[in-house]
Amino acid sequence: MAISDGFWGAVGNTPLIRLKRASEATGCEILGKAEFMNPGGSVKDRAAVGILEDAVERGLLTPGKPGLVVEGTAGNTGIGLALAASARGWKSVIVVPETQSREKLDYLRMIGADLRLVAPKPYSDPGNYVHVSRRLAEELGGVWANQFDNLANGLVHERTTGPEIWAQTGGKVDAFTCSCGTGGTLAGTARALKAMNDGIRIVLADPEGSGLASWVKTGVVKSEGSSITEGIGQAARAPGNLQGAPIDDALTIPDAEALEQVFSLLIDEGISVGGSAGLNVAAAVRVAKAMGPGHTVVTILCDGGARYQSKLFNPDFLREKGLPLPSWLA
User: Any residues with CB less than 8 A from the CB of 57 and at least 6 apart, and which?
Assistant: First the structure.
């Protein structure tokens, strides 16, 4: 195996895993891109490297010289940015809503990020974590990563994630499903796959409480309900990275359906994932059943379950939300 050049060189080229139970249930090949195997533990490592590479190319940051990166995030992008920045000698200020999982907050502190917690506010409120991070970047003279509207996010997936999936499947891919927070993973991967074969079906997977599925179907962001998933879905707008993305359809997945996949993957297949990955797999199963046996559906396993122990694997939390418990914790 090749030797990777530090954190930056180790991002990407993750395995594509056949999900046995989902495949057997549908008669299709359901494949999960194991993004939890990136060095920072999530798919957001790709966005972090892509955004910071772009900042270097534009002369905003120089490796080995003092620099500051500022971002508002649900956690995983902040982790990726903090680690990628440290590897190049830069500092990071990460703004996170205080409602995110304790594990992600503790991890950000552990890796040396300057963590700023804010109350959860809608995007229309100046106190929203995205707006707070923009203002901090201006005040501190740092580079604002701006993952939602910075097109370097989607471009890195167009250069890497999509071509990797195409190569790993030998071009035998019929559909791709993915949830969206910034939209970078779905948009970039979709563009790459559609360039290879325009017949590949691209389906946005959305949690309840998000309006992106409505946006795909009607052009209007309209949301109903709520979800315990973190880092995915948008209730107010479609991020810049999603604009113009070649999306064929969208599905709204309830938390209970996503959790069923999270628990099944863990206890039946030994694969530990978070809620967004469970939602992605649930959407892949739905798409596979609609397409019929014999197809190949690829999705993203965004991050690992250990970052959500206090929520997804906390019986008290699940009972409080009226959600199913895994049998071994009941």
Answer: none
pLDDT tens digits, residue range 232-264?
999 999 999 999 999 999 999 999 999 999 999
Distance between CA atoms of 198 and 250, rounded to whole angstroms? Answer: 17
DSSP 67-105: -EEEEE-SSHHHHHHHHHHHHTT-EEEEEEETTS-HHHH
- Rama region for 247: left / alpha / beta (φ>0; ψ in -120 to 50; rest): beta
Q: Is position 44 annotated as part of the catalytic site? A: yes
pTM of the shown model? 0.96
Cβ contacts of 42 within 8 Å, gap of 6 or more: 35, 36, 76, 79, 80, 302, 303, 304
Choice among 44, 104, 194, 311 that is catalytic: 44
| Distance between CA atoms of residues 34 and 28, nearest Å | 19
Inter-residue contact 34 to 17 (CB < 8 Å): yes
- The amino acid present at 159, given as its one-letter code, is R
C-alpha gyration radius of the chain? 19
End-to-end Cα, the chain, rounded Å:
43
At residue 290, φ and ψ (nearest 5 deg) are -70, -35
CA–CA dist 186, 78 (Å, integer):
19
Model confidence over 88-101: pLDDT tens digits? 999 999 999 999 98
